[in-house]
Amino acid sequence: MGALDLRPHIERFKRRFAEVESALNDPKVFENNQRAQELSREYSRLKDLTASGDAYLKVLQDLEENRKLLQSSDAELAEMAKEEITRLQEEEKRLAAELQRGIIPPDPSDSRNTIIEIRAGAGGSESALFAADLYRMYTRYADARGWKVETMDASPSDLGGYKEIIFNVTGSDVYKRLKYESGVHRVQRVPATEAQGRIHTSTATVAVLPEAEEVDIEIKPEDLEITSCRASGPGGQGVNTTDSAVQIIYKPTGMIVRCADQRSQQKNKARALTVLRSRLLEAKVAEENAKYAAHRKQQVGTGERNERIRTYNFPQNRVTDHRIELTLYNLPTLIDGDIDSMIEPLMGNELEERLAALKL
To answer: What is the pLDDT of residue 1?
Structure first.
């Protein structure tokens, strides 16, 4: 990441930590619950950063002392200093990375619950099967992280898979980790129906939306056209045959949202409004980001729908993320939900870019 003088940043963390600590000692802060929660989160983050800052400065001091000992005429002492320097350099690297992450203010959306929409793209029934694979990949990842997944709406495909599936993921740091999944995912494999064994290419789009709160987006009742309709299902036991599915048309843009997963019309309406609010927030954020995009050399995870972000090549057991040119040969475990090997490098790359932008 290049040498960055962290001392001024450590000083800044300490100053801000003292300010937040003092603010939390004022009982009036707790009259505004949201503000109190924000300050408590910041307090906990800064407490860790100031501790890391102190440890980092101590490591720098120890390194300086051991480098002096290297010049010692006592061979045994010089050898011990050499070993200690190796250990301290590793520690310096680890703490520096932690502090650099702290320099970038956390995205307020990172801790939000998240709505994910997966849609089959080009490639007919094969793309619907791929959409189902992606849904399974994300739900397995969520299970492993202890997150909760709730389906909000699904349009199954006649031949299996999904034309579209929308679900909500709740838990710690959901958006922070899944935001890089927005975009076009491409799959290359031999379909089960293909007798000739030819490789077929198809796509699915993924949209990752931080769940909007009512304060983010104001929706006027007169801008909504709400209708209830019969929920369609595969038939048999447990199918919703009442008119509880809800469709909302947002008149200013013509956007349509459906929710048919709950048996109660009220619940479906509330969920459909949550999806609508989150889509409108995403559009608002995208508009803001577009204003600044010109100043950024390269963007990671902008979520543009036309942006092919990743290719899953089954015959070669290969997954490539095109934004950071990373290729891994662990396709079976990745599609089974172990996606940290992709997410961690994307997070690291974004951190480097944001640090570089700060130094401009």
So the answer is: 41
